[in-house]
Amino acid sequence: MPACDLESPCLPTSVSSDLALPSAPSPRLASGLTLALLGAVAFSGKAIIVKLAYRHGADAVTLLMLRMAMALPFFILMAWWAGRTRKGVTPEALQWRDRLGIMWLGFTGYYLASFLDFAGLAYISASFERLILYLNPTLVVLLGALLYRRAISPYQWLGLAISYGGVLLVFGHEAHLSGEGVWLGSALVFGSAVSYALYLSYSGELVRRLGALRLVGWASAVACVFCIAQFLVLRPVAGLSDLAPQVWTLSVINASVCTVVPVVLVMLGIERLGAGLAAQVGMVGPMSTLMMAAVFLDEPLTAWVLGGTVLVMAGVFVCTRSPVAVPAD
Question: Are 40 and 9 in contact (CB under 8 A)?
Answer without folding.
Answer: yes
